[in-house]
Amino acid sequence: MKPVFEYTRGMLPEETTYCPGCTHGIAHRLIMEALDEKGLLGETIGVAPIGCSILAHHYMNIDMCESTHGRAPAIATGIRRVHPDKIVFTYQGDGDLASIGTGEIVHAAHRGERITSFFINNAIYGMTGGQMAPTSLLGQKTTTSMDGRMQELSGKPLRMAELIATIDGAVFVERVSLDSPGNVRKAKKAIRKAIEVQEKKLGFGFVEILSSCATNWGVTPVKALEWMRENMIPYYPLGNLKSPEEVK
Questions:
Q1: Mean pLDDT in residue range 20-37
Q2: DSSP conformation letters of 65-104
Q3: What is the CA radius of gyration of the chain?
C-alpha cells in the first residue's frame, strides 16, 4: 500500500514537550519539510531562544543553538557572517521577538541581514505562565490581564509583520496561519519563499505564523483553532506584505 504519511527527514523521532493542541509541531515540520525538499538540511543552522520552543533542537534534524531571551537575531547575524553560505534562521515566539527582543529584530531587519525569522504569534506568553504579550488582543484575559487587555493601560496589540514591512532591509514579509489545512499549505509556501530569498542573498526575510495555545487560552485544541479564526485573523490579516520580484 502507498503510505499516506511519511516522517520527514528534517524531524527527529522524539516525543515533544508541547501541550495538546499546540501548533508549534506543525510549524517545525513545515520548516523542516521545506529545507528537506530543497536539499538544505545539512546547510542550515537554526537559532531558538527562551520560550516553549527552547527544546526545538531536540526535534529539528539540523545544526541548532540556543540564545538568551530575545537575542536570536543577534546570534543568527554572527553565525551568518561567519558562515555566509549557510542558511540561517531564528525561530521565536511573540513574548520573545515582540517584547524583550523587539530592538534585536528591528535592527536585524534594518541592516538587511541575510537571515530568516520565523515568528510564532500565539498572542500570549506560553512557557512562563500565560502572561499578556505585546500581541495579546484587546479584551483577552491572561494571568496579568485578568479583566482582559485594556487599550488605555497597554495600548493596542503590536502588529509585527506590518512593522517589519516598513523597514527597507526587510525584503520578504508575510503572515500566515496554522488554523486549517488550507492555511497550513499556504504557510509552507511562504516558508519556502523566505528560504529562497535567503538563498539568493536578497536581504532579511520574516514570516509571522499565527499559532494556537490551547492551554493558556483555557480552551480545547479544537476550540483554539476556532478562536484563532474568529479573533486573531481579523486583527492580524493574512497575506504577503512585501516580496521581491525574484520570488513572487
A1: 95
A2: EE-STT-HHHHHHHHHHHSTTSEEEEEEEHHIIIIITHHH
A3: 17
pLDDT at 1: 75
Fold category of 24-247 in CATH = Rossmann fold (3.40.50)
Q: Give the DSSP letter string of 126-158.
A: TTTTS---TTPPBT--BTTBTT-B-HHHH-SPP
Residue 202 CB contacts under 8 Å (≥ 6 apart), including other chains:
114, 171, 172, 244, 246, 247
In the chain, where the domains are located: 24-247
Residue type for 218, please? G
- Please report which confidence band the pLDDT of residue 248 belongs to, taking 50, 70 and 90 as the band edges: low
Q: Which three cell numbers, joined as nine digits, stand for 74? A: 543577534
Distance CA 245, CA 23 (A): 31
Say how many C-beta atoms besides its own lie within 10 A of residue 215's C-beta: 18
pLDDT tens across 127-180, in order? 888 899 999 999 999 999 999 999 999 999 999 999 999 999 999 999 999 999
Give the HSE-up count for residue 142: Cα atoms under 13 Å, Cβ half-sphere.
24
pTM listed for this prediction: 0.95
